[in-house]
Amino acid sequence: MPQIFTTEYKGPALEKPIKVTVNTGLFIDGKFVDPIEKGTIDVIDPTNGKKIVDVAAGTAKDIDVAVEAAQRAFKTVWGTKTPGVERGRLMNKLADLMEQNIHEISAIEAVDGGKLFIHALTVDVQQAISNMRYFAGWADKLQGKTIETDDSKFAYTRHEPIGVCGCIVPWNFPIMITSWKLGPALATGNTIILKPSELTPLSALKFAELASQAGFPPGVINVVPGYGSTAGQAISEHPLIRKVSFTGSTLTGRKIMEAAAKTNMKRVTLELGGKNPNIVFDDADLAQAVKWSTLGIFHHNGQMCAAGSRIFVQEGIYDKFMHAFTEASRTLQPGSTFDASPTVQGPIISQTQFDRVMNYIASGKSDGAKVHTGGDRIGKQGFFVQPTIFTEAKPDMKIVREEIFGPVAVVVKFKTEEDVIAMANDTSYGLASNVFTTNLARATRISNALEAGSVYVNMASVPDFRVPFGGYKQSGQGKEMGEYALEAYTQQVQRKQLPGRPRRRRPDGVGVALDEETVDEDTTEDDTVEDDTDDIIDDDVIVAEEGVDDVAEDDRDGVMEDDVEEMMDDDFVDVADDGFADVEEECLEDVEEEDVTECRTDEEEDDEPALLDSIVDEDDATELEEAGSEDVEALE
Amino acid sequence: MPQTFTYQFDTPTYKGTSSFSTGVFINGKFIDGSDNTTIDVLNPANGKLITQVSEGTPKDVDYAVECAQKAFDTVWGLNCPGTERGRLLYKLADLMEERLDEFAALEALDVGKAYNFAKGADVPGTVATIRYYAGWADKIHGKTIETTQDKISYTVHEPLGVVAQIIPWNFPLTMLSWKLGPAVAAGNCVILKPSEFTPLTALLFAQLTVEAGFPPGVINIIVGYGNTVGEALSHHMGIEKVAFTGSTLVGRKIMKSAAESNLKDITLELGGKSPGIVFDDCDLDQAVNWSVHGIYFNHGQVCAASSRIFVHAKIYDDFLAKFTERAKAIKLGDPFGADTYQGPQVSQQQYDRIMGYINAGKEAGATVHLGGERWGKEGYFIEPTIFTNNKPDMKIVREEIFGPVAVIMKFETDDEVIAQANDTVYGLAASVFSKNIDRALKTAQKLRAGSLWVNCASHVSPQVPFGGFKQSGIGRELGEYALEHYTAVKAVHINLGHQI
């Protein structure tokens, strides 16, 4: 039986002491259980480096068990078996329970993540709840389209859940990002294997307990804390996990994408790093620009993928801005988790991250940039770093090019709009950007010109669950939040029915199998075939074309060798070649062969390849060619 | 001060007390109507007085518009984020769910519908609809529209302002949610007029809007007559939109009033004479069950009632025999009886109207295959009735009866039945029974109706739009589509550098 961690927190920010209880097991199939290999993770308090508690460490074996439970839930009590209304009801109920326990969750999040309790309460947990409610509302609003073709055909699309989804969540905003992923995934009917970061697993375990209370059927939500190299890798490679959504470093994101490519080509959503520009024009409201810029880089110690870490200031306002910004950075002082003052600065999450941040500061100094303020450790205990501002940095310095993920701003002076756009876009990232100006036309012009997934005008990145978030370039793939997030957790299936024609194989080569989908939606073996068929028609050819672009872009931008692995662990071992080498070779063969292999890997059912063959051979080969030629046209 | 209505239910299916104000509900308070007059609310099961409620007047409408406009300008509409509007609607749905049985009992008492139906369909459907729109409140999206590099264009979907909603007596609470749900979610302020026949659940609902925390003036409920309050709402210069569910006759008047006053937007959900088409390749037992539900559910007082039943010649006799057997088995009686299916019609007036149609059918030469008479001695009960040997030009085939009266006709070919089914000024709904998917889809495509039910009947979902073709109405309720009728699209063009 897993241990229950119980403690009580007190402090100026709390009206009365908060009692906290967290089950430290793995949450699989509706129950807290011990991990099969009995491993544990030390959870450390970053304010003092001491251990808070041990929690269970899941490994590949536990992931297998969780996937089995999730797959069973998907096929029996979730997915298309449960109406959206009911999924939404459960999600709203979960949000209610989170609201009822908001102080406890916030305390857990604050202690575990090294953040201020009042920030956890008013930002992290509140956002998590709002996000869950928002997606609860979407659960019964999934809509496909009917598509007019001609009289002899009826066509419609249906947005179906994907199946078992792996969600790998980082340590910087654990409960909030959990909600970003689980909100749309659950609303659309997927079942979940959630891996919180090994650095901050506690709030996810509390979340699991509340989900169980809310009445989610066993297997719908599974929480497996563990290391990236074990649990994370198992999720990325698992043949029955159909989708993986990851937030973390670009380096790890690349590994996950590779693992997905080498195994079952699971769909991937990646929210990765950023080196986000924060542009302040002469005509900005200076006081507001300073406040937002301070928040943008120093909130939660800059441990934010959307941190405004490259601050470009126009020359006319540069001195005034620097003066006020420096003052603002100095008001941030270290303190304890439960202090009542919002200007208290917490620690960096871990020794590893602390060392990285300090190494970046050292490299900035040795490269010749000037430490304008800060630049040192604070105190001797815990992982506190002074809010740091660099000036006189050159575009090719590491502190300008790489994501530091700490309280380190680089301020650069600029002259013209053209200059700043060029500098702002000179990065392999493209997550977010902030623009400060009172000129509407300029704000819009710059917004349009910046290569970034989010542009904030006269504010710094504050997440809004109604608005999509996600990166351009190497900052990621796909979107979270907003209606857009639903696309990441559904597959659009085209179903066709041809009224007025005999239901047998027709000479034009369109097979019966497609017709029968309309009638028979739930046979699982057919699903596999159907998905693969869709893949062949809809995705693969396109992917192949896009792949060429990606490589070209990689060449231009350069692969980031020195990327900071901030979100996961250091030891995410490269995806093992064994076991998938065959698949990889098959990739070089033609498409039909590859998908047959995938079927074997997935289901190990002998009759499927034959069935697939017949469809591919006689029907889809034609469509494949057609799709191919269409895509070429589209590209032209 | 308006009276408080207190009622002690002591019935086989529900025991409990209900108590709420009978006043006009304006600006978050129950007040007397400006003329201090009242409306008698009768129990259709026995014709006796249940209570009196305050009668609203055009003067009350003026006051409500003033309060609603003030709320719209200060605390609602663009002044209140969608997420907050959604939160209040969710809260309201929760409060209604807590009193689900009480609402069901009031609806059964007031309308005469079976308590078990009210409890199983009307009230849960209402709660579901309000929750559904609660979810939409923060999901109302405009578009950005690419034009040229010199310009950025976008649309915002803004609430209309003060809207009037006039609802009927057949599904008082359900219709209330169909109207209020999208209107309030989209940020409008509402003045709702329940039917003078069935005002009770709307008054309890009004009380819960206060408990849920809606700002005063956002939701106003005025019980009153059509020719006074209804007329005032449709003519009002300060009301941006009127939505009405009811007869085609009244719908036409409302449209005229809108045209004569401020050209307010309208949504009309009107009558129907909806066909149910039973092909010979259907699942016969299921077709019979759904067809019985289609016409006799809620005593035939359903705008989408499947009142013209076309049966293929090959299975006509079998269908008729089974249908008759099912109709005969319908249990009439006390709405609170445990196994009651059918209660009374809503009023003396409706009773007379239906009996008039039955007589017209007889006189025109149709055969009363079943029923055709009053049931019992008190209340407005009518036997489930089946007419056969009908001709296309008979009144019972052409006009909406709004009672438990089915007309059944035989057909031979697909083309013939499609032509007959479409031979009506109405176009609200239609049912098709066939196991052949090609036939079902083709027929569904050719029928001119707003809702097509394949192998089912009167089977609405909050997520799916509902509304009429032809003279069955204008606009759609339910689903995302309903939001269009409660928002105005504003297109914003921003010049980024085009100089002249």
Report on the architecture of this protein.
Chain A is of the alpha/beta class and 636 residues long. Helix content of chain A is 44%, strand content 18%. Chain A is built from 20 helices and 26 strands. Chain A has a seven-stranded mixed sheet with strand order 18-21-22-15-14-23-24, sandwiched between helices. In chain A, strands 11-10-9-12-13-25 form a six-stranded mixed sheet, sandwiched between helices. In chain A, β21 (388-391), α12 and β22 form a beta-alpha-beta unit. In chain A, α1 runs parallel beside α7, α2 (84-100) runs antiparallel to α4 and α17 (524-557) crosses α19 (591-603). Chain A is globular, with a radius of gyration of 25 Å. Chain B has 500 residues and is an alpha/beta fold. Chain B has two domains: 4-270 and 474-489, Aldehyde Dehydrogenase, Chain A, domain 1 (3-Layer(aba) Sandwich), CATH 3.40.605.10; 275-461, Aldehyde Dehydrogenase, Chain A, domain 2, CATH 3.40.309.10. Helix content of chain B is 38%, strand content 22%. In chain B, the strands form six sheets. A seven-stranded mixed sheet of chain B has the order 16-17-18-15-14-19-20, sandwiched between helices. A six-stranded mixed sheet of chain B has the order 11-10-9-12-13-21, sandwiched between helices. In chain B, strands 7-8-22 form a three-stranded antiparallel sheet, with no helix packed on it. In chain B, α1 (58-74) packs parallel to α7 (226-235), α2 packs antiparallel against α4 (115-136) and α2 packs across α6. The model of chain B has no long low-confidence stretch (mean pLDDT 97). Chains A and B meet through α2, α4 and α14 of A and α2, α4 and α14 of B.
